Amino acid sequence: MADEADYQRKERKRRLLDLSNSGLTHLDPSSALIRNKMEAAFVRRLVLTDNELSHVPSSISQFVNLEELDVSRNRISWLNGEIAHLPKLRLLIARNNNLRHLPKEFESLLSLHILNLSGNLYDDLPREVFGLRNLKELYFGGNNISNIPQDIRRLQSLQVLYFGGNKLRDVPESLGSLESLQALILCDNQLTQIPRELARLKSLKSLSLHKNRLQTLPMEIVMLVNLQELSLRDNPLVNKFARAFDFNPPSLLELSGRAVKITQVPYSPSTLPAPLVSYLDSARSCVNPKCKGVYFDSRVRCLKFVDFCGQYRLPLEQYLCSPHFNCELEHDNSSVSALKIQKLLLPRS
User: Fold this and answer.
1) Which letter, b or e, does each residue of 199-234 get, where b requires 16 or more Cβ atoms within 10 Å of its Cβ?
2) Which of 111, 200, 250, 323 is close enough to 298 for a disulfide, judged by CB 3.0 to 4.6 Å?
């Protein structure tokens, strides 16, 4: 087995054509530079990083057995549609270029497993990406993307999704349908909230949300039982730890409804109109264990830091029936100092 592994490593290296830092301004598979090193048909891995390429031309199709292509750190502004004639291409890296679009033929790259287009000029996620049904890793960090389309749900094989360093203000609920996703990176954006549907990502192990504008996390986040890394630093929920109290004086209807529920006055559809019965049935109990009160519409919104997976204490929204009980919650064992929370909210090294 060791001999076989060693052979595979040598074979992999033998089929590598590394033309990085070669001053290339164009790609000509018939040029002496390439032919002296390797015939195009034998190349499995082609590295063209740190050159002066302005585009990936149609001649790329002559590398018929190409599996990995890296054209990072050039000046590439477009990819020729002939790239779709690389049926074995599994990995494409084009980081730090000037790309804004993808050719329509791109979605034909059904063998593609890893696509890295970070550090380009994309304002939107190209629709051609959604045809790559076997894609396992997708990197679009450091672009200008402000929206992730709902069609992201079509990429059911995704295991890694990287959108750090963009202009996202929200993310779609459809992200929660990516059942194979193990790492979701949404750091360094403008997110003020994340959808509760992310709790459906049962395979998720790493969630990066640092450098956003998050005030709270949805309660459902505790359902991510396989989560091992959670990054929340540089968010208002970590930096400020301020409790926001929003309380509107109860209406007469609310006060009457509370009295009925607290004193357990019997009622039924035969004694009250159906709308009142429905209203009374909608009563919610105060979360304070020292309070037996209920509320309907008038409530106090605050934050409570709760234990999560034995590693983190997360700020989650909760609602109280009255501001009178907030002082008791302040001394609850669930409250900890801001300094301690700052440490606990960061992933363990």
Assistant:
1) bbbeebebbbbbbbebbbbbeebbebeebeebbbbe
2) 250
